[in-house]
Structure to design on (324 residues):
């Protein structure tokens, strides 16, 4: 039985990945900063909480990371933890860089110190690329030009992974993931904010939804698809980096329009633009080229944009219906 350690198991991707690995017969360990206090609500929602053994780990503390690896003795490590909000990184740049870049460094050093044959997946990000010109798609050779502290931190961690792979022969790879959504997405993310507000309005709420720029374009995929790509990356003979994306960008306005339209609403009647929500610097257009993932991993996105939004709307309606 293979053993996997998912750092950040309580998040959207961590929970779906745990579900996938359990289905493949893995013994799954997961980390959270405080395993005693964390709710692990996503694991409970998927019905797998009792099947995942959880540990407390502070990735900025080398001793904590080393202790976690010694206790779990994993064959595969999926490093998904760290500050996850681009917007929040402008308010907390130091914490973003510490948790992401130094957290990755501590993990790599701990694996090197222990000397066990471990395979490492690192969650890199499309934010590393910054702006991608309209009509173009970023691939594994596209230069990085991050436009947020989060993107800078992810780019630093990305190159640490590449350096340790080349310098020390570690099996470690980067999944350069573009935006991906699911019903497990936290409420602070704009996609969940949009869908939740649209569902409340359709149910009778008279609120207005306040948003920032709507002209930005993103390449949105489905989280369960993306965690499958993570697993596939660690099954290859040689570690390589892969862009994971659908290849089809859509504007935030089209996301808003589709969510409201699926509920029989015209978004223009319910949305206000709030300039205070504009970020200091923003990526205008982001799209990825998944050709290498298709050729090297046999992976492709299975959920198209309209189906993705439909899934999110139905899940949010179920949440509203379950409330007393």
């Amino acid at each position: 039985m293979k053993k996997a350690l998912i750092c950040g198991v309580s998040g959207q991707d961590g929970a779906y990945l745990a579900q996938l690995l359990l289905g493949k017969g893995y013994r799954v360990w997961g980390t959270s900063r405080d395993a005693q206090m964390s709710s692990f609500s996503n694991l409970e929602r998927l019905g797998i909480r009792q099947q995942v053994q959880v540990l407390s780990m502070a990735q900025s503390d080398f001793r904590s990371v080393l202790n976690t690896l010694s206790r779990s003795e994993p064959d595969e490590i999926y490093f998904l933890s760290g500050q996850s909000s681009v917007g929040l990184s402008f308010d907390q740049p130091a914490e973003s860089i510490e948790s992401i870049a130094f957290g990755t460094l501590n993990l790599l050093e701990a694996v090197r110190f222990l000397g066990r044959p471990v395979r490492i997946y690192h969650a890199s990000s499309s934010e590393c690329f910054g702006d991608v010109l309209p009509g173009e798609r970023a691939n594994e050779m596209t230069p990085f030009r991050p436009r947020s502290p989060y993107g800078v931190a992810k780019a630093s961690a990305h190159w640490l992974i590449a350096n340790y792979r080349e310098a020390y022969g570690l099996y470690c790879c980067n999944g350069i993931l573009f935006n991906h959504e699911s019903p497990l997405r936290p409420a602070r993310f704009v996609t969940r904010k949009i869908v939740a507000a649209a569902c409340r309005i359709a149910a009778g709420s008279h609120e207005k939804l306040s948003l920032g720029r709507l002209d930005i374009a993103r390449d949105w995929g489905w989280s369960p698809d993306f965690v499958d790509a993570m697993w596939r990356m660690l099954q290859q003979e040689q570690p390589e980096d892969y862009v994971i994306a659908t290849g089809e960008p859509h504007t935030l306005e089209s996301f808003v329009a589709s969510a409201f339209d699926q509920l029989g609403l015209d978004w223009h009647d319910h949305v206000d633009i709030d300039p205070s929500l504009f970020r200091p610097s923003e990526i205008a257009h982001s799209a990825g080229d998944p050709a290498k993932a298709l050729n090297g991993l046999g992976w492709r996105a299975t959920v198209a944009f309209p189906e993705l939004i439909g899934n999110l709307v139905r899940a949010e309606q179920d949440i509203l219906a379950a409330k007393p």
Notes: The chain has a mean pLDDT of 93.
